[in-house]
Specification:
The complex is a heterodimer of chains A (423) and B (421).
Chain A: H1 2-10, H2 12-33, E1 42-46, E2 49-51, E3 54-56, E4 61-64, H3 65-85, H4 91-110, E5 115-117, H5 118-144, H6 152-170, H7 173-197, H8 202-225, E6 241-242, H9 252-256, E7 258-259, H10 261-279, H11 281-291, H12 293-298, H13 303-330, H14 341-351, H15 356-379, H16 385-388, H17 391-400, H18 409-422
Parallel strand pairs in A: 1-5
Antiparallel strand pairs in A: 1-4, 2-3, 6-7
Helix pairs in contact in A: 2-3, 2-4, 3-4, 5-10, 5-13, 5-14, 5-15, 6-7, 6-8, 6-13, 7-8, 7-13, 10-11, 11-13, 14-15, 14-17, 15-17
Chain B: H1 2-28, H2 31-55, H3 58-92, H4 95-104, H5 107-139, H6 147-164, H7 170-199, H8 203-223, H9 257-274, H10 276-286, H11 288-293, H12 298-325, H13 336-346, H14 351-375, H15 381-394, H16 396-403
The chains are: A mainly alpha (423), B mainly alpha (421).
């Protein structure tokens, strides 16, 4: 809707006021609603990490619930005033910060007279964010070259399935991961051939990939894996690899430096992708192909070849994401185990404005919402588990409105470019 | 001599003219290929499906290894034949049994013999509704992947009205329950429609998110607020006054909903091609920019299209609840909403095409269970065949390449555009 885009860019002030009002509502929620009945209660954030029998000690954070809520609410209130009176320059960052404060306030409230292990929560957020972040990067490579790829979900499933089978047969997790990557690339090749060579609508082609992968993996699980269960036993999941010295740092160590090698791969991928897209000749060509294929073609860039390569990379990353979910985390394959992670990744990519760092940040938010269901059900906050489980999907929908972060000229331009490339 | 040649030539030209007329009749309108291409797509998908069945069967592979190539191929052929015969008998009923029942004339035997046919029609019913929903969306340029979620919400709404209200006569209760299902579905679809019209958020991702939210909502409602008193995750049974009446006695489950679905197809056709709003929806689908200049308000049209599309999907759930299940369980839909994507594409987003495609897949699904129990081929093969059919329908060049068909003049089809459009 270019009409909506116009409204978005011209009506900035109206949008700023709207954001201010949302801030105000949040501030009132934190200051008025949450502190009710919490007088004299204390919240405890445990920072000590206990995993696999190894304890990395850190002092607990203990503070009065109501005072903490008033402080957090006060910060949001100040942000509201500034937003309504003067307006923030970089409003996207502020929105992200305020959302963070809101979540923090919720956690403070949820842990009244109880304790939450914050380190554990951050670890599980990162673990759950990993497949989403991979999916976001998968989408990034493809879309930067002008091919919409909603088939990531299917490529992840294929990667998850194939990696389990290969890891079980060869008893080698590394070969399993490679096989998963290849499986993702095979489906990506199908997507590329359909959408680039046969000019099939990219969305239809992506939907076909999903249906095909879902059907094939479920079929093969029932006709093969269920009969030969040893094919679905890749052994224990890929072990965490502590980085020497660094992993013993309290709080940061368990979160960042004692994780699966695939998570380190993700960190590398984020940096490498950023460098490729901003500083290398090939990356700039990919972007030019995505943003203005005709101009790129005139300059002598092979549009089709660039797109084929980008979509194949996209598929490989998606396959890796699937491999992480099966042999990297779950240790086996289950039907439909990706459960919409590919789509969450696409939303994270849009949230991050098609940039690696932003996409990773978006994935972390989704990962957090994904992990809080089990954490909060332990605390018994009085909200049904299934409703808490809606959070990542609702967050995706809010992000997709582009209301908070899609308003920059840059993103508008990129959307238009993708649109042009598609039609 | 000359005369003879002349006559020969004449008959040749006449022959050619005749062929031309035939060609003009069929090819120029794209009629022949419009029928031929989907047919070949389905056929090819079945052939590839046969290969997958054979390759994934452990027995066939063992035979191949121990008894040589020829025996292996024989075993593969045997398995495929057995599977597809089971598929046929499971969907239409076994011809021998039907003949025997007709000969005996016993009512019970007849009902049993025709039961597979009835079961296939039972599956076809939600397929038609959901497929029509998808087709309507496609015509309006919208890709409503959320049919599955809309089906769940429609089912939830209708089952709630069905069991919570009692004592109404059927001519009030049944329409009320159906209306609830329609509204529930429409609401679930109108939300992504509104988001698209207002902010440009792409409906594909939003409808998928609404799917997951609908599943969670169902889990939540079935595990507490709407659960049966004994606490099982099943809703109470609806009042008989809200039943969609069955056409025959048990065990035939085919119900009035099948004819309602056919009626809905006619209604959708009338709506899309004979009403102003339908024209506007198709215009927005074909070219939103041009239709804006023609004075059509795009945003409301998008919301209406999504709501109508979702209402039909909601009806799919409603018909299943009111006609077959009479209560709601978590697994009441086995992916009808997802399959509807394939139905709409295969049916070229035309109501008649959708009905035919739904019959095809309904009968496939109906037979698949028998195929699984007799030949040991998992039901999921149907989904693979669906995906293959979709590929071939979406990229007809592949089929043309395989069967060396010439390109017929085709009307340009706009299914949807990219992000944020």
């Amino acid at each position: 809707m270019s009409q909506a885009a116009l409204v978005r860019t011209e009506g900035r002030s109206r949008r700023d006021i709207a954001i201010g009002i949302v801030f105000l509502g949040l501030a009132l929620l934190i200051v008025v609603l949450l502190p009710r009945g919490t007088v004299g209660m204390k919240s405890t954030f445990v920072l000590t990490s206990q995993r696999a029998g190894v304890t990395i000690a850190a002092p607990d954070l203990i503070f009065p619930t109501d005072i903490a809520l008033y402080v957090l609410g006060g910060i949001v209130f100040l942000a509201t005033v500034w937003q309504l009176v003067r307006g923030f320059e970089r409003v996207n960052l502020v929105v992200a910060g305020v959302v963070g404060i809101g979540i923090l306030a919720f956690l403070v409230w949820a842990s009244r007279d109880k304790s939450i292990n914050m380190t554990g929560m951050l670890v599980s957020s990162l673990v759950r964010a990993t497949p989403i972040a991979f999916a976001a990067h998968s989408g990034l490579y493809s879309e930067r070259s002008g091919v919409v790829n909603i088939g990531i979900e299917g490529m992840m499933l294929a990667g998850a399935f194939t990696s389990v089978v290969f890891a079980s047969v060869t008893d080698n997790l590394f070969i399993g991961v490679i096989a998963g990557i290849v499986a993702g690339m095979v489906l990506a090749l199908l997507h590329a051939v359909l959408s680039i060579r046969y000019m099939v609508d990219q969305i239809v082609s992506g939907a076909v990939i999903i249906i095909l992968a879902l059907g094939l993996t479920s079929f093969l699980q029932r006709s093969v894996l269920n009969i030969y269960p040893e094919l679905n036993q890749p052994g224990s999941a890929i072990a965490a690899f502590p980085i020497p010295v660094l992993w013993k740092i309290p709080v940061i160590g368990p979160i960042l430096f004692n994780q699966s090698p695939i998570i380190y791969t993700l960190f590398v991928l984020i940096v490498v992708t950023r460098i490729i897209m901003n500083n290398t000749r090939w990356g700039l060509r990919v972007r030019s192909v995505g943003e203005h294929p005709r101009a790129a073609d005139t300059l002598g860039i092979n549009v089709f070849r660039t797109r084929y390569i980008s979509v194949l990379i996209s598929g490989g990353i998606a396959g890796l994401a699937g491999a992480y979910m099966s042999i990297g985390a779950a240790g086996r394959f289950n039907e439909g185990m990706t459960a919409g992670k590919g789509f969450l990744g696409l939303a994270a990519m849009i949230f991050g404005n098609w940039n690696p760092g932003g996409a990773f940040f978006g994935s972390l938010i989704f990962g957090f919402f994904d992990s809080w269901q089990e954490k909060l059900s332990i605390l018994q906050v009085g909200i049904p588990v299934d409703l808490l489980g809606m959070a990542p999907y609702l967050a995706t929908m809010v992000v997709l409105t582009g209301w908070f972060c899609g308003a920059s000229q840059d993103a508008g331009g990129r959307r238009a470019a993708v649109r042009e490339a598609v039609t | 001599m000359n005369e003879g040649k002349e006559i020969l030539k004449d008959s040749e030209t006449q022959e050619e003219e005749k062929r031309n007329i035939l060609q003009r009749l069929f090819v120029r309108r794209g009629c022949l290929q419009a029928v031929l291409l989907p047919f070949l797509a389905v056929l090819t998908a079945f052939v590839i499906g046969a290969v997958i069945i054979a390759v994934s069967s452990p027995e066939v592979l063992t035979t191949l290894r121990t008894e040589g190539l020829l025996n292996g191929l024989g075993a593969a052929l045997n398995l495929v034949l057995e599977s597809y015969v089971a598929l046929f008998e499971g969907s239409f009923g076994s011809p021998a049994r039907i003949l025997r029942a007709m000969g005996s004339g016993e009512k019970r035997a007849l009902l049993d013999a025709f039961r597979p046919l009835s079961e296939s029609l039972v599956i076809t019913t939600p397929y038609i509704f959901a497929g029509l929903g998808l087709a309507l969306g496609f015509r309006g340029g919208l890709f409503n992947i959320g049919a599955e979620g809309q089906l769940f919400v429609g089912g939830l709404a209708s089952v709630y009205v069905g069991y919570s209200i009692t004592g109404l006569p059927w001519y009030l209760h049944l329409p009320l329950a159906m209306l609830a299902g329609i509204l529930g579905g429409a609401l679930w679809g109108a939300i992504p429609g509104f988001l698209k019209a207002r902010t440009g958020a792409h409906e594909v991702i939003n409808t998928i998110m609404m799917n997951y939210i609908a599943f969670r909502l169902t889990d939540h409602l079935l595990s507490g607020p709407m659960a049966r008193p004994d606490g099982l995750p099943i809703t109470p049974e609806i009042a008989t006054s809200a039943y969609l009446p069955a056409l025959f006695s048990r065990p035939m489950r085919v119900h009035v909903g099948f004819f309602l679905a056919l009626g809905a197809a006619a209604l959708v056709y009338w709506f899309l091609w004979k009403t102003t709003l339908g024209l506007e929806i198709r215009m927005v689908g074909a070219n939103p920019h041009a239709s804006r200049y023609a004075g059509i308000r795009i945003a409301p049209t998008i919301v209406i299209t999504m709501a109508l599309s979702a209402a039909l999907a909601g009806l799919a759930g409603t018909s299943q609840i009111l006609g077959v299940d009479h209560r709601m369980v978590r697994a009441f839909s086995t992916g009808y909403g997802f399959d509807a994507i394939a139905l709409a594409l295969l049916g070229n987003s035309h109501p008649v095409g959708v009905v035919l495609a739904s019959l095809l897949f309904g009968f496939l699904r109906g037979g698949a269970a028998r195929m699984q129990s007799i030949a040991g081929v998992p039901v999921e093969i149907i989904r693979i065949i669906q995906a293959l059919v979709l590929i071939f329908v979406a990229a007809p060049e592949i089929i043309r390449g395989i069967y060396r068909l010439k390109v017929a003049r085709e009307e340009e089809r706009v299914l949807m555009r990219g992000w944020g459009s």
